[in-house]
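User: I'm writing a tutorial on reading structure tokens. Could you give me a worked example: one chain, its sequence, then its tokens, then a sentence or two explaining what the tokens reveal?
Assistant: Sure. Here is the example chain.
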Amino acid sequence: MAFRFLIVSFFALLSACTSAPAVHSPEDDLGIQWVKHSAEYQAITRQVYQSAEKDLANFINDPEWSAMPGHPREDGLPPAVVIDVDETVVSNVDFQIAFERPFTNRKMYDYFQEHEAIPVAGVVEFVTTAREAGVTVFFVTNRPCAPIEGKPGDCPQKDWTLKELASIGIESDKDHVLLANEQGWDRAKIGRREHIAENYRVIMLFGDDLGDFTPCVRKTLYGPCTEPATKVSRQALVDQHRHYWGHGWYTVPGPMHGSWTSFTD
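And here are its predicted structure tokens:
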């Protein structure tokens, strides 16, 4: 009897070990739920953009100031700000709740053909104020510029992004929305920021990911990076640029996804 019990217990344990892992539900993800439901998230994003608004005049009036190390390389360049799109200008929280895992860009594209964009609190007012002050606004996103089956054009994500921005009250054009894979750019946004800095003095950067401010934050090698990022190297980048945080560099919370998710083990 004891032997039979051991055999039954062994196969029960084996079955438990080899069964499919439980699927993580968005309803169980506190980051998603916090963005969706908390007043604190709304307060923080407004705080970020209102703080930046107060800094605008000083940065505009200081011709030597730049939010990009090593710039400006020419005198007299007009001021510009660079803003990420997803979770910085538009919130994808409803998509994060609704889509069937795993993520693909096509799934997000299709979702937003039928759903309204959600503005991140404070961004529309900031963009309006910056433009009224004579600052050019660029949107740099890692949405890929690539064909989508059944959709017209070589870069339908560009038109979609422009449509989304317009729907929340921010008009822009193709020259001021820069995607990954466009003009040979990869997912390292530093290349696009450098492109902008050739003709503008970039006075502010906005994003929800460390890569919106500095390169070499991922395990995958992009741009100028020669070694994969680590937790230690990412923290070193934060420390190295400590004088920029809240002073030219403005980060909004991004608890739902991002480069940080590769470093949680």
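What the tokens reveal: The beta strands are 79-83, 90-91, 118-119, 136-144, 177-180, 201-207, 249-251. The chain has a mean pLDDT of 91.
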